[in-house]
Amino acid sequence: MASDPLSPGASTPQTPTEKPSTPPVNILSSPISRVYSIIHPALLLALGATQFESVVANPTKGLLSTLPWFTLVQILYVIICLPPAGSTETTAPADGKSSSRSPGPASRHGKHGKRKQHVNSWTCIWSRLLPALLALALTFVLATPVLAALLVLFGAPLTTHNAETILGAAHMAVLSATALIYTHGLDRSVWNEVWGIARPADAVWGSALGTGLGAWFGAIPIPLDWDRPWQAFPITILTGAYIGYAVGSLAARTPILFGKRIVFAVEEVDDAEKKSN
């Protein structure tokens, strides 16, 4: 797969005994894809800022009314910017120029060429829209309950605020899981890396990891004795999740992070050195 324009294009080498990992996901090569992939995080934050007061006034009603808008923006992002699972679509090469060949005379001129181009456009749209809708369905059916359970395990009320917990989990699922499912499907090896926090950095994994870390940091103000209405659960958690999503999405595409993995353990000593000790 070609390299993202903001990335060095190299993935972490694998040892001979390891199953090759799915490479980092690259933003599609078209100019609108590259531009919108940068605009998208700012658009999400702007949408959240405009709805913040309504969410503070009534968290349940505010989160419910804003969820469709956030979902729509996220679906547009995956359709415009990301390759669906199993796709062979052209992605942006290292120099930022598309490697696609220019259309021939038959596709540029004539009635037949225009009709063929029109059919191909609809086929391309449907080939992205259908996976996006399936990814969204799996996001709500599978990812939302899992994240709701994790919120409870990390301290969310179990017997109260159930609507807020579910809606908060739905917002986080749309942010973190939709793009992962859209680009990787149900590939078991990829999801093992996701749960093991071992995916190579890219826009998709960076935004998902940023969502989780942002939500975790966003929980810090809740128990503080400031007596502010915006401290109510899960307002600060979701605020942190959206900020984390934006930061992670952009940071993971930089040459410093793209293709890199988080390493938790120190490098193991080889067998010869163990024996010598």
Task: Provide a descriptive summary of the structure in words.
About 13% of the residues have low confidence. This protein is mostly helical and 277 residues long. It has one domain. Helix 5 runs antiparallel to helix 7.
Give the tally of β-strands.
Answer: 0
Helical proportion, percent range: 55-70%
User: Taking Cα atoms only, what radius of gyration do you get, to the nearest Å?
Assistant: 21 Å
What multimeric state do the chains show? single chain
Beginning-to-end CA distance, first to last residue? 44 Å
Biggest beta sheet summary? none
Roughly what is the average pLDDT, rounded to an integer?
82
Give me the strand/helix succession: HHHHHHHHH
Q: Strand pairing plus helix content: what structural class?
A: mainly alpha
Overall tally of domains: 1
Low-confidence spans = 7-18, 90-108, 267-272
User: What portion of the residues fall into strands of 2 or more residues?
Assistant: under 5%
Counted by DSSP, the helix tally is 9
Shape: globular
InterPro entries: GPI_biosynthesis_protein_Pig-F
Biased composition (Polar residues): 9-20, 90-102
Protein name: Glycosylphosphatidylinositol anchor biosynthesis protein 11
Keywords: Endoplasmic reticulum, GPI-anchor biosynthesis, Membrane, Transmembrane, Transmembrane helix
